Amino acid sequence: LLAPTEMSSPSLKTGAYILIGVGALTMLMGFLGCLGAVNEIRCLLGLYFTCLMVILLAQIAAALVIYFQKEMLKVELSGIVADLIEHYDPSDEDKRNLQDAWDYVQTQIACCGWTGAKEWENNEILRNKSYTEYPCSCSNRSMDLVEGRGFCSLEDRLNSTATYADWPVHEQGCMDGVEEWLKDNLGIILGVCTGVAVIELLGMILSISLCKNIHSEDYTKVPKS
Questions:
Q1: Tens-place pLDDT, residues 147-163
Q2: Positive or negative: CA dihedral 128, 148, 137, 103
């Protein structure tokens, strides 16, 4: 879990709360939709339609916020990652999940730090070492990636004057790596989002159709005077 100082971004907090709310609403929506369709209950189908519409509008709003506030989000993420790197400690079990997640990002994207490897020179543990170490997840050597987390040592352990430029790590920062990944996979991301939106629209159409059918059936059952 994130400590209060690590979750100082209001935008990220809001985003997390929105995701939790949408997840809970989706579970409730699925239950109501099944119950309404099986038992032919119009009010539940109407509620199902409303929930789908709210989720669709929330997704559109989230996309607009990300698009128009991307620079602010980038700055906030930069501060969070900088704080994470500065206080990164492999022995701290309380932050194990968060640190493992960041190690995974650096390993998969082949990057180091948010803007570059120099940020790791601010790490409290690395600054106090009598010999040079560097983050294993930043390494461009396969032997270091086997460890995957924590710190690795230079072969010349006595070289205490080495800087980040002497580390066998990736030069690219993760910010640039993430942006490149998004550009390379933009078509897939847009396709998935479009597919989800189409499914939601179909669900709304089907719920309306069921409501109309139930209404017509109820009308035909009414005895004529």
A1: 778 898 877 655 556 67
A2: negative
Tokens of 17: 């709360």
Closest residue by Cα to residue 139 from 180, 171, 97: 171
pLDDT, position 155: 72
Measure the CA–CA gap between 199 and 175, rounded to whole angstroms: 32
Reported for 65-74, long-range contacts at CB under 8 A and 24+ positions apart, including other chains, are: 69/11, 72/11, 73/11, 73/12, 74/175
Structure confidence by residue, pLDDT tens digits, 76-117: 888 889 999 999 998 888 888 889 989 999 999 999 999 999
**What average pLDDT score do residues 124-137 get?**
87
Residue 89 — φ and ψ, nearest 5°?
Answer: -145, 110
Contact 20, 14 (CB under 8 A): no
Dist. CA 69–CA 72, nearest whole Å: 5
Give φ, ψ of 62 to 5 degrees: -65, -40
- Please report the sign of the dihedral spanned by the C-alpha atoms of residue 84, residue 90, residue 92, residue 95: positive
CB 134 within 8 A of CB 151: yes
Between CA 80 and CA 143 the distance in angstroms is: 29
Distance CA 59, CA 12 (A): 16
Instruction: Calculate the CA 13 to chain-centre distance.
Output: 12
Tell me the average pLDDT across 51-67. 82
Write down the pLDDT at residue 4. Answer: 39
Q: How far is CA 91 from CA 60, 99, 151, in A?
A: 41, 10, 11
| CA distance linking residue 30 with residue 27, whole number of Å | 5
Residue 92's region, left for phi above 0, alpha for psi from -120 to 50, else beta, is beta
